[in-house]
């Protein structure tokens, strides 16, 4: 059995987080994001943003986790207070949002996504969170199936993101952490 784990990210992880994000988006999002958007992505810019997020998170309730297989960083997740609460949402203090959960495609189907999600749930509960939400591209069937297989459901909300070269439709999924 492979040596697998999930741990909190450190500043030295930022370049690998950026690489994983870039590789995953360029592979898995070819039919979701416009080609010019994918071509314009810059790993150094991503790395600088992730370094800032890991080094100085906006609050103690913001977390970035790394999935490991042996010595390889294979995926990551970021979550924290929901910055996009809707009028019909329950108490903002008990709702958190997963802003990204990615496993590099070549490391897929090995349980890394499930381990990341379980770690998110554990940390969120420790922070007093009773509800998690995630916006997922409507065309990202793999991610939608992943969340749904873990018991997440659509709450009926949909939004359109302007990429500068078109729009991407996203659906909001949610899960209760109560009990």
List its traits.
179 residues; alpha+beta; Aminopeptidase; seven-stranded mixed sheet; 5 helices; 7 strands; 32% helix
Descriptive report:
The protein has about 180 residues and is an alpha+beta fold. It has a single domain (about 5-175), classed as Gcn5-related N-acetyltransferase (GNAT) (Aminopeptidase, 3-Layer(aba) Sandwich), CATH 3.40.630. About 30% of the residues lie in helices and about 30% in strands. It is built from 5 helices and 7 strands; from the N terminus they run βαααβββαβαββ. The protein has a 7-stranded mixed β-sheet, sandwiched between helices. The two termini are about 30 Å apart. It holds the Pfam family Acetyltransf_1. It comes from Jatrophihabitans lederbergiae. InterPro entries: Acyl_CoA_acyltransferase, Bact_Acetyltransf, GNAT_dom.
Could you provide a short overview of the structure?
With 179 residues, this protein is of the alpha+beta class.
Element layout with pairings:
Blueprint: E1 4-8, H1 14-28, H2 35-40, H3 43-55, E2 63-69, E3 72-81, E4 95-103, H4 112-126, E5 131-137, H5 141-149, E6 153-162, E7 167-176
Helix pairs in contact: 1-3
Pfam family, one: Acetyltransf_1
Protein name: GNAT family N-acetyltransferase
Keywords: Acyltransferase, Transferase
């Amino acid at each position: 059995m492979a040596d697998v784990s999930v741990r909190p990210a450190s500043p030295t992880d930022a370049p690998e987080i950026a690489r994983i994000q870039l590789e995953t988006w360029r592979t898995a999002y070819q039919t979701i994001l416009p080609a010019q958007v994918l071509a314009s992505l810059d790993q150094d810019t991503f790395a600088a943003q992730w370094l800032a997020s890991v080094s100085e998170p906006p609050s103690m309730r913001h977390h970035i986790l790394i999935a490991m297989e042996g010595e390889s960083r294979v995926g990551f997740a970021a979550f924290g207070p929901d910055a996009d609460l809707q009028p019909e949402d329950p108490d903002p203090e008990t709702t958190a949002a997963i802003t990204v959960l990615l496993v590099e495609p070549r490391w897929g189907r090995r349980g890394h996504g499930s381990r990341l999600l379980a770690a998110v749930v554990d940390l969120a509960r420790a922070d007093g969170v009773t509800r998690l939400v995630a916006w997922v591209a409507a065309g990202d069937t793999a991610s939608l199936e992943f969340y749904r297989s873990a018991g997440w459901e659509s709450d009926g909300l949909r939004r359109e993101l302007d990429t500068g070269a078109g729009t991407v439709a996203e659906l909001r999924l949610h899960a209760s952490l109560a009990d």
